[in-house]
Amino acid sequence: MTYARDAWYVAGWSHELEPQTPFAITILDERIVLWRTPTGALHALEDRCVHRLAPLSLGRCEGEALRCGYHGLLFDGSGKCIAIPGQETIPPQARVRRYPAIERHSWIWVWMGDPAGADEDLVPPAVGLDDPDYILGHGHLDYAAQARLICDNLLDFSHLTFVHAQSFGAGSEFADTPARITPLPRGIRYERWIENSLGSSSRVSATPMDSYMAYDFLVPGVLLMKGGTFAPGTAAHCGYGAPDYAGATGGVTFTSQAVTPMTGDTARYFFSWGPHRAHGDAALRDTLMDIAGRAFAEDKTMIEAQQRVIAATPDPAVMPTVHDKAVILYNRLVERLARQPQPA
Ligand code: FES
Ligand SMILES: [Fe+2]
Fold first, then answer.
1. Residue 314 CB partners (closer than 8 Å, separation 6+)
2. Ligand 1-lining residues (CB < 6 angstroms)
3. Shortest-distance Cα residue to atom 4 of ligand 1
4. 3-22: per-residue pLDDT in tens?
């Protein structure tokens, strides 16, 4: 797998981490156990006991520590073994790997690179479920496909015209003209205006409007998208750049999405979506989540089928089109970051 290790990966929704209950997730083929202590600290350790390799996630939380459920070795949040039942001395090698972990924007993030490089400023600025401006629904999907294919899908919205003609009601414009793509230090920015349109199933207007959508797709696979509708002429008026959302006529929504590679051919896809408070309510959020549920199932069907073809193809090669600019720029960035040396 070519993935950047020096990045924060989404391990789960914050609210899904029950207090004092170990939570297991595999990221980049590494088994990780997370738990929250009574004082609110969040810990992430290698989910493999140093004694006989049982998963620590089958153990139990004891105060700030985690006890292996097999023969009872006790580990602190740094991964150090602090007690061995019936044994006085604790050998120095009695420790498991610690991963930096933080909670932000309703997600639990785990840093997969050298802990010394874990920079909290690199957490992508997702919009959390408690954000006062948005009314968000959320969910996740497990994929029998490599994360890279899901990222490629999210980097090339020309598929909307074909995969999401029903669910999103996407028109031909997504495939007919390339979007504006700009490189960012940790990803790419996608921007598109659609002029004089009645909108799609998620944003219908009675009269033709200009609609704008823009997202940043950031390492290690986080999509943050905002969109809205504007009076006709707005696109030209702002030179096809970003509009002022204070002038939006409606349909302002935000979605945060994250792709986490679990193993070489499985991934977990986290998402939230909903309207800005000034442009919708809980009922609209539910409508949007219903549309997203259908659309994300359409993607999953296509991507898992694509994965099966790739797996059965010796030396699979791709042939990029004009719509692959973001795919190419982003994957180049990931390859560059993946080459950064890691401590042994
Ligand atoms: S495997 Fe964990 S204590 Fe034996
Ligand atoms: Fe899609």
1. none
2. 49, 51-52, 54, 68, 70-73
3. 71
4. 999 999 999 999 999 989 99
